[in-house]
From TrEMBL:
The chain crosses the membrane at residues 38-58, 64-80, 92-111, 117-139, 146-164, 184-203, 210-230, 250-273, 338-359, 365-383, 395-411, 423-445. It is a multi-pass membrane protein. It comes from Sneathiella chinensis. This is Xanthine/uracil permease. Keywords: Cell membrane, Membrane, Transmembrane, Transmembrane helix, Transport. The keyword Transmembrane applies. Belongs to the nucleobase:cation symporter-2 (NCS2) (TC 2.A.40) family. It comes from the Bacteria. It is found in: Cell membrane.
Length: 450
């Protein structure tokens, strides 16, 4: 049974207490549990800035800075969720990190402008998109009825499916290997990427406990270590990186371009839908209950505020991380304080640029092996949500039309070239048309009688 300490705080010990977000395990257990949350999301969190840096041709200290800020903002955004601030924050064990969902919007910006000149445009759009996302949180509770598992499952699955080609490209060596060094698809790239995939799968299913939960990070480390004697790792930037550095808000300035801002705001709607799915997954998997309107609203507002903070600090948009939802279901520990400890680990890491330099030196092929698995896992998470949907003819039609149009336009973007650039950009993200069509069709098509 639970007891009341002299300080007035509860000391939890029963099975029901594990489902309580206010439960605080002993530090000897809380610290490893918090570190496990960091290990599960760390690779994904730093993958996005590395991919954007590659698309824009950014390297050296600028690339390290993006990685450093990704860690800092992820930690701060996570604290907004776990500790909260007034109505902001779900006060649930939600781990925030840099969002893959916005890559279809950010990569074209980075690729077209090139270099650090692309960063002010990206950060300006991130700031506005985050503010828009925040205000979505104030009203999203009223629209929960239009976001059933049919919609959220399709959105999450599409995120993974649209990103898989990027992961495969990195296994081949990335854009640098394709257009500059001309060794795209070389045996050593494919070998390293394949090795990482094998290690991840072996660790995930043959190991137990924290090793199994950290399979992606272990795969990256093994691939990195094997790549060193193969002479495909450049440690030049590591030696130049400082051991300690303070963050520099607005280091690259900030600017606003209409197409980028509109694209980011529209994608914020998709990100908000994803967040609703994650919050629902946490409360259902960890506590066996539905999320409250306050948790949905507060979590979405914190998501948006974290993204806006990223625009000011020099980071990409943030979102709740789906892989950490799985950890909660696996461990059965709903403690938000455990995730707070993980957030503090991230913040401390952000003040050590050497860490960012070591990560940025990772070969693209190694990163690609992990990306293939991570992006596939995101698609799998979407399919899991769809598993609870009644697969009648109506719902099958909604799935078929939404995926066909969304993924089809992404594969053949020239079909919508007659539209203005910002409209064409949104129509070819894959995500936006899938989300829009699934919501619209779910509202319009009559329900089937059983």
């Amino acid at each position: 049974m639970s007891e009341i300490s002299q300080s007035g705080n509860r000391s939890y010990s029963g099975p029901e207490d594990l489902k309580n977000p206010d439960y605080m395990p002993p530090l000897a257990k809380a610290v490893p549990l918090g570190l496990q949350h960091v290990l599960a999301m760390f690779a994904g969190n730093v993958t996005v800035p590395i991919i954007i840096a590659g698309a824009a041709g950014i390297a050296g200290g600028d690339k390290i800075f993006l990685i450093q800020m990704a860690m800092l903002v992820a930690g701060l955004a996570t604290l907004l969720q776990t500790i909260g601030m007034g109505p902001i924050g779900a006060r649930l064990p939600i781990m925030q990190g840099t969002s893959f969902a916005f890559l279809p919007v950010i990569i074209p910006i980075a690729a077209s402008i090139k270099g650090v000149a692309a960063l002010p445009v990206i950060f300006g759009a991130t700031l506005v998109g985050g503010i828009f996302h925040f205000f979505l949180g104030t009203v999203i509770g009223r629209f929960r009825g239009i976001l059933p598992p049919l919609v959220t499952g399709l959105v999450v699955a599409t995120i993974g499916l649209t990103l898989l080609p990027t992961g495969v490209e990195y296994v081949g060596g990335g854009k640098l290997a394709k257009f500059v060094t001309k060794d795209f698809g070389a045996w050593y790239h494919v070998f390293l990427g394949s090795l990482v995939i094998v290690v991840i799968l072996g660790t995930k299913f043959l190991a137990k406990g924290i090793a199994s939960a950290s399979a992606i990070l272990i795969g990256l480390i093994v691939g990195y270590l094997v790549a060193i004697p193969m002479d495909v790792v450049n440690f030049g930037t590591v030696a130049d990186a400082a051991w300690f550095a303070f963050p520099q808000p607005l280091k690259y300035g900030i600017s606003f371009e209409a197409a980028a801002v509109v694209g980011m705001c529209l994608m914020a709607i998709v990100s908000a839908i994803e967040t609703v799915g994650d919050i629902s997954g946490i409360t259902k998997g960890g506590a066996g209950r539905e999320a409250t309107n306050r948790e949905i609203s507060g979590g979405t507002m914190a998501d948006g505020l974290g993204t806006a903070l990223g625009g000011l600090m020099g980071a990409m948009p943030n979102t709740s991380y789906s892989q950490n939802v799985g950890i909660i279901s696996l461990t059965g520990v709903m403690s938000r304080h455990v995730v707070t400890i993980g957030a503090l680990f991230l913040i401390l890491s952000a003040f050590v640029p050497k860490i960012g330099a070591v990560v940025s030196a990772m070969p693209n092929a190694v990163l690609g092996g992990a990306a293939v698995v991570m992006f596939g896992m995101i698609a799998g998470a979407g399919l899991k949500l769809l598993n609870s949907v009644d697969m009648n003819r109506r719902n099958m039609v909604i799935i078929a039309v939404s995926l066909s149009v969304g993924l089809g336009l992404k594969a053949e973007p020239g079909v919508v070239s007659i539209f203005p650039d910002w409209v064409a950009m949104m129509m070819t993200t894959g995500l936006f048309p899938v989300a829009f069509l699934s919501i619209l069709l779910n509202l319009l098509l009559p329900k089937e009688d059983h």
